[in-house]
Every structure is written in structure tokens, then in C-alpha cells.
């Protein structure tokens, strides 16, 4: 029997990096790891008064009575995943993460499933989320309590299928240091984190607390343009989270990473970067690529104070 709800929060959460996990660990071991993650997601849903409607591959679809409950559950999911985010594999550490999208609105509940415009919008938010992100809509943010609203930030306008106009997209900041940085008064020092220095053709780009995200690719609009014919326009995203640097492949041809004597291949997946190594956009190292990016992690003290022309570009 179909039940029309007045207004509830719909959430989609799924595991990123599972394809690589199956490739490295094998079907049986990877399935156990994925099942453990899905069980954790379902347990968090229950802890915050929600209801898991169904599992979808390596993710779940669930509902919550309020926007606050959904956001608090999403933050708990990210935190628990982050606590055991790195899976040690024969090919080196493999970073696991989840993507979460949610929206609030009226839905129809029937036979353990949910239908309606709000469900479609929530699914779109899940598709927009990057690994480790919680993405939602302005409509959801307006329904949050004051404290939780302060943990959000507007990031973009995006089209949604079936909508004539674009929607305002917001990110929920779930990491304590991200929320703290939003409220730090001007002039107060920010906690220092290790730097990641990227080098390509004599050009250097430095990532740190002030520049936690960069994109590499063939496009001139990328933070570090790379002249590789196999590279996508926006090929990889590198992000600093809790003092560690994670690389996420966004491309068609995949990304090759060489570090500490090991090599990894990513396609629409994420991994934790080691201390130093090379990144090749689309071309395997066996083909002796000439257009690769070198990376090295260094403490703030090691980096010195010298400015470089790209370290503060938008």
C-alpha cells in the first residue's frame, strides 16, 4: 500500500573505491569488506532514527524524519568510514570513502521503496558528491537547526533532470577542522598541515591548509595544466583531508600513480598518496610517459617561505 509522506529526508550513501578493491583483493575478500561498510551505514541510519529502504550495490537508500537527523547521520557515516579509510593491500594502501547526497521533501513510500521528485533530487545530490563529501540542497539547508546550518557552504548551481531551473548545491562540512576554519577570526593562525609539492615542466604548485584542493588536467582552466594527449580536460582532483592527501580520478583513461616502488591504476577511484612519487594522466608508466607530475610531501618547516607563482592562484 502506498503512503504519501508530508516531508522527510531522503539519503543516498555509497562506497567509493570498491571497484579497485575487487581488483586488488579478489572477489571474496572485497565482498566481505564492502558488506562490512554497508552494515556500518545501516547501523548509523538506525542510530539516528532513520530507516534503510534498500541496498543498491555497495550503497544504501534511506529516510529520516528530519533534516537534522539525516545530516547528523551523514556526518557520523563519514567519520566512521574515515577512521578505517585505508585498506592495506598487496599493491599498497587503498583509500576508501563514501559519497552522500540528501534532500528533504514529500515522497511516496510503497513496498519498501520511495518514489517522487524528492527522491530524484536526492539521487542527483549523491551523484554530484565526491568521495568524502556530503552534498545537499538549499531547501534542506533552510530546514536545519542553526548549529548545523553553520556547517554548510554553498558550492555551485547544478541542473537536475526534470527541473527547468538549476538548483543551489551545498556541502555539509563534517570534519571538525573544516568547521573550525569557517569560524576562525581573521588574523588567527590556522593549524599547519604537511605540504604537498607538485612539479611539472619546471612549474611548482604547493598544497597546504590554505589550498586544500587542486585539479590537474589537459585544460588550461585546471590548477596545473598537463600537456598529455591521453589526459582529460579535468583529469584528477587532489584533496587534503586531516593532514593527508587523497587523489581522485575523474577521467576517461584513468590515472597511473607510482610511489615507493609500487604502481597503482585508478579509474573513477580514490587513493591515499604516499610520501613522494609520480602521477601520469592516462598513459601507463610502461609507455615511458614524458608528461607526468612529480609529488612530494613535506612538513611546513621543510617547505621554507619562498613564494611560487602558482601557490595562491584560484
Description:
The longest helix has 21 residues, at 27-47. The radius of gyration is 20 Å and the shape is globular. The chain is of the alpha+beta class. The chain has helices at 18-25, 27-47, 67-83, 117-128, 138-141, 146-149, 176-183, 300-303; strands at 3-4, 8-16, 51-56, 59-64, 86-89, 92-95, 97-105, 108-110, 113-115, 134-137, 152-158, 167-172, 195-200, 203-207, 213-217, 224-225, 236-241, 244-249, 255-259, 262-266, 270-272, 276-281, 292-298. It has eight helices and 23 strands. The protein folds into two domains: 3-182, Nucleotide cyclase, GGDEF domain (Alpha-Beta Plaits); 195-303, Sandwich (Tumour Suppressor Smad4), CATH 2.60.200. Strands 3-4-2-7-10-12-11 form a seven-stranded mixed beta sheet. Strands 14-13-23-22-19-20 form a six-stranded antiparallel beta sheet. The protein has a five-stranded mixed beta sheet with strand order 16-15-17-18-21, with no helix packed on it.
Share of β-strand residues: 35-45%
What is the rounded distance between the termini? 53 Å
Helix tally equals: 8
**Strand arrangement across the biggest beta sheet:** 3-4-2-7-10-12-11
- Percent range of helical residues: 10-25%
Structural class of the secondary structure composition? alpha+beta
Low-pLDDT residue spans: 183-190, 303-314
CATH class of the largest domain: Alpha Beta
Total beta strand runs: 23
Please identify which CATH superfamily of the largest domain we are dealing with: Nucleotide cyclase, GGDEF domain
CATH architecture of the largest domain: 2-Layer Sandwich
| Rg (CA only) | 20 Å
Supply the number of structural domains.
2
- Using the coordinates shown, work out and report the CATH topology of the largest domain: Alpha-Beta Plaits
Mean pLDDT: 83
Categorize the overall geometry: globular
